[in-house]
Amino acid sequence: LGARGAPVRRAVTTAAVPRRRLGWLLLAVAVTTVLAAAPGAGVRATFGAHTTADEPHYLLTALSLWEDGDLDVADELADERYRPFHEIRLSDQAAPAADGRRVAPHDPLLPLLLAAPMGLGGWVAAKLALALLAGALAAATVWLAVRRFDVRPGVATVTVGLLAASVPLAPYGTQVYPEVPAALATVLAVAAATGPARPRTAVGLVLAVTALPWLAVKYVPVAATVAVIGLWRWWRAGARPLVLAAVAGFLLSGLAYVVGHLAWYGGLTVYAAGDFFQEHGGQLTVVGTAPDYLGRARRLVGLLVDDEFGVAAWQPAWLLLAPAIGAILRRADARAALLAPLVAGWLTATFLALTMQGWWFPGRQIVVVLPLAAVAIADLAQRSRPWLATTVAAGAVGVVSYAFLVVEGLRGQLRWVIDFATTANPWYRVVRHVLPDYLDVTWRTWALQTVWIVVLAGAAVAAWRSTQTGRSVSGAGSS
Questions:
Q1: What backbone phi and psi angles, to 5 degrees, belong to 465?
Q2: What is the three-class DSSP state of 105?
Q3: For the chain, what is the radius of gyration of the CA atoms?
Q4: Which of 3, 100, 170, 213 has the most CB atoms less than 10 A away?
Q5: pLDDT tens digits, residue range 101-136?
Q6: pLDDT tens across 85-99, in order?
């Protein structure tokens, strides 16, 4: 499609994009995303709860921070403060300390972000606060695409808007997990890493990278990758003192992380405070008690095309990530800055995550890097009119699919976690028959997986061959 279609006008340079026009586009995509995500707050997680799994524990910790100024949820558990958002009895996750404290085995930055909304407006306000962060994420992603990777503003806004208003970014805009805040931190970190060698840019990189492990330790590979990219770029640009200062900042933040976790959780990670991990071999059992890494390799494609937990089943525009990667490999400026953290996040979800098909909504483990995938897809969309039309058409299907889920959820016909696949959405009812089922592995699963690997690899190679050498990062000289 990209090779034969009529070419779309090449991306304008950063300097030529009027700041006011871009500002209105950012506002539009932010508002649209918030309006798409917010209704999801009314969809139940399970039959007996508005929130489930880790969500209630994040909310209880936020409430404890607001009311008591600490992470100890022992009194909140004893008083059953979770009943408004988890009607059935909540299972403990925190192992009791010698002094009776109970600290949930989850990093504290998300509860800290939600403390005020939770304290002032309860669980609904906390969910709506996450929807606002989802809007900020969409706006930041458009800014990154335009200012750092020369994507046309209109194309970036439409592409990111469609992806942000669909699965999985929109559902996680109201589910109480660190995924959306972490994705926002990743986008801001990449924006800083690809920015000019200036003190404020270095401060932004240190703060954004530092935020990721404080949201969850699983984001460390992504954080480290972006940090190395930024430091390497500035070192090659001759800003050696700035690099040394940033390294000092990272060392200080790392020290604070270690000291804080030892004091609050009793170990280098939050899992030291979890009862399950204490009973089953320690903190490293978070990746599994007997992990089969070869078997987990199926997730490399399964995260995209699994018939329930693959994001393309719900938003087919994510399939364009394969040709988008092929195309962007031609751009020396973007290969590292955009694809390296994307690959780091994808490999983490593939080999380190306990499971792909967990007690959560599809796509949870890759939300942190999907905005970078959205930038790559937007770059692909501007290369020709057929690519743009394909992106818009596929994206629209995904938005309708998400609308089905929300409407059915608000009507009580399905819930986010336990029966989302029962949706009456005709697109999903048809497309799932051509997607592999990794929960019921048969010869058909492997046959479909092989077909999809061939199709995706072929699309990537075709896009790579049809793409000319790309442009440089226009944002290298802007703030």
A1: -70, -30
A2: coil
A3: 22
A4: 170
A5: 899 999 999 999 999 999 999 999 999 999 999 999
A6: 999 988 888 888 878
